[in-house]
């Protein structure tokens, strides 16, 4: 890089508000309600935690590791935490490569602060890195402090499809209708359109329309491709 370019870059960096002591002093702790960390799924470790973790929880940011997180989760929420992570793992195990970046998953649970009080955090997790084999290797995890409630809603765990701007059923990630799922299962069983038409007592043209919609929703060029997607396990 040319020297003139380096000087320009240095000037830009120094113009950031993060470089200004005055600007960094105007933020007050009460205005900070969230923090994030980077989780290495392959090594099962937390690689980085931003300093806001200390402001929200009272703990030093370098204290946070997986063992510490499990320790500060409310005992009554620990099973829910593990079950939610297992649900999303089962979901992501069927994703391939860039599909990982389409989705986020979220839910809430309680953690104990350094003062001994419990706060409820809204956890949202999204893919940050996928390796050349299609494995999810790093995730960005955001925690936002929310209003405390005793009970967790049964609908608390959610998976969000960023490309469709909507929440989805973890067991039905393409949001297929009941009829479309029925037709898809018959296709997987080796039935052709005419056989499906006879089985469901609806017209063949209707079956063809459903087949087209299924492929469009799943962004697949063929049912062979779609079935591979549905059965994909790393």
TrEMBL record:
<dbReference type="InterPro" id="IPR000014">
    <property type="entry name" value="PAS"/>
</dbReference>
<dbReference type="GO" id="GO:0006355">
    <property type="term" value="P:regulation of DNA-templated transcription"/>
</dbReference>
<dbReference type="InterPro" id="IPR035965">
    <property type="entry name" value="PAS-like_dom_sf"/>
</dbReference>
<feature type="domain" description="HTH luxR-type">
    <location>
        <begin position="169"/>
        <end position="234"/>
    </location>
</feature>
<dbReference type="InterPro" id="IPR013655">
    <property type="entry name" value="PAS_fold_3"/>
</dbReference>
<dbReference type="GO" id="GO:0003677">
    <property type="term" value="F:DNA binding"/>
</dbReference>
<dbReference type="Pfam" id="PF00196">
    <property type="entry name" value="GerE"/>
</dbReference>
<feature type="domain" description="PAS">
    <location>
        <begin position="18"/>
        <end position="92"/>
    </location>
</feature>
<dbReference type="Pfam" id="PF08447">
    <property type="entry name" value="PAS_3"/>
</dbReference>
<keyword id="KW-0805">Transcription regulation</keyword>
<keyword id="KW-0804">Transcription</keyword>
<protein>
    <submittedName>
        <fullName>Uncharacterized protein</fullName>
    </submittedName>
</protein>
<dbReference type="InterPro" id="IPR016032">
    <property type="entry name" value="Sig_transdc_resp-reg_C-effctor"/>
</dbReference>
<keyword id="KW-0238">DNA-binding</keyword>
<dbReference type="InterPro" id="IPR000792">
    <property type="entry name" value="Tscrpt_reg_LuxR_C"/>
</dbReference>
<dbReference type="InterPro" id="IPR036388">
    <property type="entry name" value="WH-like_DNA-bd_sf"/>
</dbReference>
């Amino acid at each position: 890089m040319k020297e003139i370019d380096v000087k320009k870059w240095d000037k830009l960096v120094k113009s950031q508000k993060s470089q200004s002591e005055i600007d960094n002093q105007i933020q007050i702790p009460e205005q900070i309600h969230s923090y994030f960390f980077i989780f290495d799924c392959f090594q099962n470790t937390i690689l980085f935690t931003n300093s806001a973790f200390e402001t929200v929880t009272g703990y030093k940011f370098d204290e946070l590791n997986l063992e510490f997180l499990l320790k500060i989760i409310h005992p009554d929420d620990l099973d829910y935490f593990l079950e939610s992570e297992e649900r999303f793992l089962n979901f992501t195990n069927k994703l391939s490569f860039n599909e990982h970046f389409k989705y986020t998953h979220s839910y809430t649970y309680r953690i104990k602060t350094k003062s001994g009080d419990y706060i409820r955090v809204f956890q949202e997790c999204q893919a940050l890195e996928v390796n050349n084999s299609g494995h999810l290797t790093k995730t960005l995890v955001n925690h936002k402090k929310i209003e405390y409630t005793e009970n967790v809603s049964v609908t608390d765990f959610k998976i969000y499809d960023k490309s469709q701007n909507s929440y989805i059923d973890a067991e039905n990630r393409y949001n297929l209708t009941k009829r479309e799922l029925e037709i898809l299962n018959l296709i997987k069983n080796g039935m052709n359109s005419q056989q499906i038409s006879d089985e469901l007592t609806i017209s063949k043209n209707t079956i063809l329309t459903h087949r087209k919609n299924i492929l469009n929703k799943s962004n697949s060029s063929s049912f062979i491709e779609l079935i591979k997607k549905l059965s994909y396990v790393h």
